[in-house]
Amino acid sequence: MQLAIWDTAPMSKKNQSEETLPFEASITKLQSIIELIEKDSTALEESLELFEEGVNLTRQVQKALSEAEQKVSKLTEVDNALLSEDFVEQDD
Fold this sequence. Notes:
By secondary structure, this protein is mainly alpha-helical. The chain has a domain at 21-82. It contains 3 helices and 2 strands, in the order αααββ. It has helices at 13-18, 23-38, 44-75, and strands spanning 77-78, 81-82. A two-stranded antiparallel sheet has the order 1-2. Strand 1 and strand 2 form a beta hairpin. Helix 2 runs antiparallel to helix 3 (44-75). The longest helix has 32 residues, at 44-75. 8% of the residues are buried.
């Protein structure tokens, strides 16, 4: 069974290094990979390929989050002093 939006076949090693998905697409793809790995019907070799792809996507996501955090830090600089504030979600 294939998921409707994303091709869940493992990417070749060439495609893994060349393709960088947008953040939200990477998260969706990771969720698809997890679902496939958790299925009892997924072969061991395919599971390992999916796991490798998942690790690569996780690294991309972590890099994107780090870059976003750095950008936010730069945007909150005032008079060469960094204002570091914890994000607090407001309750409605």
